[in-house]
Amino acid sequence: MVRLDEDNEKEKPQNGNQADIEEQASEEQSEPIENPKDSTSDDANDKQPTQEVTGPQEVDEDIKVTKEKEEPKDEPKETSTETPPKEKKQLEKSKKGKKTDDGKEAAHKPTKDASEQENPDFKYIVRIANTNVDGNRTIPEGLIAIKGIGNRLAIAITNILDFPKTKKVGDLTDDEVEQLIKIVESINTEVPGWMTNRQKDLDSGENLHIVSADIQRLYRDDVNRLKKIRCYRGIRHEQGQKVRGQRTRANGRSGATVGVQRKRVQQQAAKKKG
Predict the structure, then answer these.
(1) Nearest residue to 210 via CA among 200, 222, 202, 218
(2) Largest Cα–Cα distance of the chain, in whole Å?
(3) Under DSSP, is residue 189 helix (H, G, I), strand (E, B) or coil?
(4) pTM of the entire structure?
(5) Which residue among 10, 116, 129, 209 is least crowded, i.e. fewest CB within 10 A of its CB?
(6) pLDDT at 62 over 80
(7) Confidence of residue 210 (pLDDT cuts 50, 70, 90)
(8) What per-residue confidence (pLDDT) applies to 267?
(9) What is the number of domains present in the chain?
(10) C-alpha dihedral over 145, 148, 151, 157, to 10 degrees?
(11) How far is it, in rounded angstroms, from Cα 3 to Cα 187?
């Protein structure tokens, strides 16, 4: 009984009446409960500086100033030397050639060489020793086109006439062409005997140099002479066989092919022995 009385005494308030206690409880219920999130948002709002509300014109001016500060100044544009694509297409069309009345493109003419443009009397073909020589070739290259003249002899002729080796045949004057023709016809008198192609001729006994069509004519005469005297070489020429002692068993077999039967040959050889 003593303990229950002590507990009741503890439950009783120490100060004030019961009416005061009920008023305090009603006030606590009427006060709203604060959330932790709302407290954080309020702290953030307190930290931000308050901006004064101004008119629309002042706001626009502030925006313009900030944009001007943020935008960088326009740097001077570099002038490009490259041609635009439209001009490139026009240049390519002009290179291809203009269109004719039929609608077909005319063929683009190739540009002439510097030598042809400088020399109006350029000769495209020069006649030397019954052969047509290309005028665009140099003098040694043009002389090689003549039958009977090789590289060594062509260089010797240019050195004898003191012509530059890089000079083209078409740039030669008429007098220089005549000098070339004369020296080609009488080359055996200008070069040593070992450079000629007909040494110790049978008729004259001199060293001659035959050029162009005269080579075939003299070769035909020599073969006919050998046939007339009935020498071994002439007979081989008549038979169409090899002349200089080559083997003919496996090479140079001309005419109809004839087979060999070994049995018949062996039988004939046995009869002769018996």
Answers:
(1) 218
(2) 180
(3) helix
(4) 0.49
(5) 10
(6) no
(7) very high
(8) 86
(9) 1
(10) -100
(11) 161
Asked if the structure places residue 169 within a domain, the reply is yes
- Residue 58 within any structural domain of the chain: no
Q: What are phi and psi of 217, to 5 degrees?
A: -65, -45
How large a percentage of the chain has pLDDT more than 70?
55
Q: Is residue 258 part of a domain?
A: no
What distance in Å separates the CA atoms of residue 207 and residue 243, rounded to the nearest whole number?
Answer: 25
What is the CA angle 257-260-263, rounded to 5?
Answer: 165
Q: Give the burial class of 137: count Cβ atoms within 10 A of its Cβ; 0-12 exposed, 13-18 middle, 19 or more buried.
A: middle
Q: Cβ of 143: how many Cβ atoms within 10 Å?
A: 25
Distance of CA 206 to the CA centre of its chain: 55
CATH code: domain of residue 186? 1.10.8.50
Q: What distance in Å separates the CA atoms of residue 241 and residue 248, rounded to the nearest whole number? A: 8
Q: Which residue has the higher pLDDT, 9 or 132?
A: 132
Q: What is the DSSP string of 64-87?
A: HHHHHHHSPPPPPPPPP-SPPHHH
Instruction: Give pLDDT, residue 44.
Output: 47
In a domain, 160, yes or no: yes
Of the candidates 209, 199, 218, 212, the one whose C-alpha atom is nearest the C-alpha of residue 157 is: 209
User: Cβ(241)–Cβ(233) under 8 Å?
Assistant: no
Q: How many CB atoms lie within 10 A of CB 133?
A: 22
How far, in Å, CA of 156 to CA of 250, rounded?
43
Which single residue is written with the structure tokens 């509300």? 53
Full residue range of the structural domain in which residue 180 is found? 114-195
Segment 193-205 shows an average pLDDT of 92
Q: For 144-166, how does the pLDDT look when each residue is reduced to its tens digit (9 = 90+)?
A: 999 999 999 999 999 999 999 99
CA distances from 193 to 127, 153, 190 (A): 27, 12, 9
Residue 151 confidence (pLDDT):
94
